[in-house]
Amino acid sequence: MNKKNQFSYRPDITLLQKELIRDISWFIILRWHAALGIMIIPWLANSILGLHIKLNIFIFLGVMVLFINSCYFYYVRVLKKRHLTDMVYFYRIADLQSNLDIIILTILIHYSGGIESPLAFYYVFHIIITAIITPKRLCYIHTAFASLLFSSLVLLEYFGIIPHVSISGLLPLELHDKGAYIFGGLFFFVSTLYITSYLTSTISSRLKTSYIELQNMDREKTQFTLKITHELRAPLGAVRSLVKVIIDGYTGELPQKVRELLVRVERRASFLLIMVNKLLELFAVGKIKMEEAIDIDINLLIDRIIKSYESRIKEAQIKLTFKKGDKLSLFRAREDDMELIFSNLIDNAVKYTPEKGDIFIKTMNLADNNKRLKVLIRDSGIGIKTEDMENIFKEFFRTRDAKEIAKEGTGLGLSIVKKIVEQYGGKIYVESEYGKGTTFTLELQ
Ligand code: ADP
Predict the structure, then answer these.
(1) pLDDT tens, 367-386?
(2) What confidence tens digit (pLDDT) does each residue in 59-113 have?
(3) Which residue's alpha carbon is at the smallest distance from atom 19 of ligand 1?
(4) Are 281 and 416 in contact (CB under 8 A)?
(5) Which atom of ligand 1 is nearest to the CA of 382?
(6) Binding site membership of 410 for ligand 1 (Cβ less than 6 Å)
(7) Which atom of ligand 1 is nearest to the CA of 377?
(8) Gap from CA of 398 to ligand 1 centroid (Å)
(9) Pocket of ligand 1 contains residue 392 by CB under 6 Å
(10) Is the C or the N end of the chain the one with fewer CB within 10 Å?
(11) C-alpha 411 to ligand 1 mean position (Å)
């Protein structure tokens, strides 16, 4: 098997929300590196620069960050899995992460020299990250929090309320008790944080606004195309039936040449009608209300679809095996969605499997309560070349071999399947060996 394509999307959320979830996951990855840095850099500083940093506390803090980050990692995974379209959970975790990061950084700064610590620059990164993932107002609050924590630390050390931890070998003289330096430093520190916060959140909110505008424009364009497509259906249907009436001889005998031409017109009109209907199906995905979901017997549904291909399968002498999962009976979904998914996948398997080929379909449920479903559809057909694999889910894409074996495909079936799978937050994998066959594996939850 030469290549695996995988789709895994969350349903019902906007691009901006997807972006937030991606950013949160990205920051979790960055934090793994930061945790290792907390443990390794002081040790390197001691070994290379000859400083005398107490390593125990840094190792302890590094391990703590690792632990906290594992909790974030697990929690975000749970949120993603459960399809929580309620974004409030994600905003909460973004907020929690920013606050905890600022607290941990302040502790690190305390143990690496307070106002003398070069680590203080790292607040700027926090502010940038916060400006990216939180709204402007919240970002200012985080900036105030960071300023407050750092100023308190420095002032508490200045007034001797908490001890100052100096790193011997770092600076030629101590600065934590020099009033002018402390107050001047704090002024520039706080203003740097606010300027960073202002600049980054302004750029970030401008980008978000452009993002929303683009999304709206895209929606309008889709609406326009949908309207045109819809308007095309009735006249196309009329053209086809009228031509059929003439071909069938109801308007009198036709010269052979005219008849041949009209048959071609009718065939083209039928194909256009199929295309229009497929496009309308594609547009319809996403507008679906999940309240319409019912318990569906997937085995029965697949049986019904197979039956509609019976004559094609017989004619091509294809051996079709359907292995039904024992436990699997009902799956909660919209019937039309499941029908579209399985009819498109089975249609492809039949269409792209030459005579005397094999098709194997297997249903399985992955967990109790009929909440997760896995279906495998394997054929011994024409297969897909490695370079085409990433394109097959794109609208109107058809491989050269597919066009040869089935002239009248639309290239829209898999786009429809992909969109529905996205809606259910499921995954679809495809494995294929060119000239030998293709397997689609579908996981829905
Ligand atoms: P259509 O089948 O109408 O062309 P689809 O969107 O269903 O459109 O499929 C897109 C393309 O993916 C097909 O044209 C074909 O090249 C490839 N494809 C899909 N299913 C299979 C399959 N079972 N075997 C080989 N190629 C396939």
Answers:
(1) 555 567 889 999 999 999 99
(2) 999 999 999 999 999 988 888 776 556 677 888 888 888 889 999 999 999 998 8
(3) 348
(4) yes
(5) 25
(6) yes
(7) 23
(8) 6
(9) yes
(10) N
(11) 7
Instruction: Report CA(402)–ligand 1 centroid distance (Å).
Output: 7
* 123-129 long-range Cβ contacts below 8 angstroms, 24+ apart: 123/150, 123/189, 123/193, 124/192, 124/193, 124/196, 126/98, 126/101, 126/102, 127/193, 127/196, 127/197, 127/200, 128/196, 128/200, 129/27, 129/98, 129/101
Read off the pLDDT band of 208 (50, 70, 90): confident
Closest-lying ligand 1 atom to the alpha carbon of residue 353: 24
